[in-house]
Amino acid sequence: MQNNTLSRPGFSLSGTALKRIACLSMLVDHLGASLLENGLFRCSAIDPRLVGLDQLLRLVGRLAFPIYCFLLVEGFLHTHDLKKYALRMLGFALISEWPFDWAFFSGVYWGHQNVYFTLLLGLLAMKALDTSQTPEGMPALKGILGAAACFLAAALLHCDYDVLGLALILALYMTRKDKRAQCIAGAVFSLFEPVAPLAFGLVWFYSGERGGSSKLEQWAFYWFYPAHIFVLGVLANLVLFR
Predict the structure, then answer these.
(1) Which of 149, 197, 201, 221 is deepest in the core (most CB within 10 A)?
(2) Is residue 6 part of a domain?
(3) Which domain holds residue 91?
(4) Which range has the top average pLDDT, 32-46, 176-190, 226-240?
(5) What does the pLDDT look like over 8-17, one tens digit per residue?
(6) Which residue, 220, 233, 213, is CA-closest to 92?
(7) Residue in 200, 210, 211, 208 with CA at minimum distance from that of residue 8
(8) In this structure, is residue 9 part of a structural domain?
(9) pLDDT at 158
(10) Is residue 2 situated within a structural domain?
(11) Where are the transmembrane segments (predicted)?
């Protein structure tokens, strides 16, 4: 099923362009969360000027998750092999967990799991709703229960953004046939984070096209998350703030 992207002349963003923006936003966010909040603020007196810088970095970083949720829905709608897609998500969730703990909690921490787990559960919830439907095309009870199980898993695992993240993903999925409604729903369901609704100003210009990218860059988008938080973990725990 294709997203009903409104045709408009002029400026537009491909899926690849949105991924690049999301990666940059996420990096900015994690610079604050790791180097400042888990690094400098933990090891020394807090300078009010750095608090302001941290708040700015985190605000810029609020754009990343909504864009990734939108791209996840697009990936679900267009993938030729959902099982392979889900296993890839699971693999990177497992690969990312220790760097995530190290960068943001300075050691193994079971109270919070990385965002790949959230995206994986969102993928499974969409599959549950898509597989079990009524003749009118609405989610059947079996599908609703499957999605509810994903919400429960997100809450029990304490995934990044937990049930609010899954609610955003499903809101984008349920409004996928109408771009205007999808952007409005996305903005509303991302109100739990300041600035995050602005991400749908960028999504509005999505062209519906994947965009040019090499095989290397496609894999780099997956590896960027564990790689950059590993580097931030090194900086926060071994180099800058020992």
Answers:
(1) 197
(2) no
(3) 15-239
(4) 176-190
(5) 557 899 999 9
(6) 220
(7) 208
(8) no
(9) 96
(10) no
(11) 59-77, 184-207, 219-241
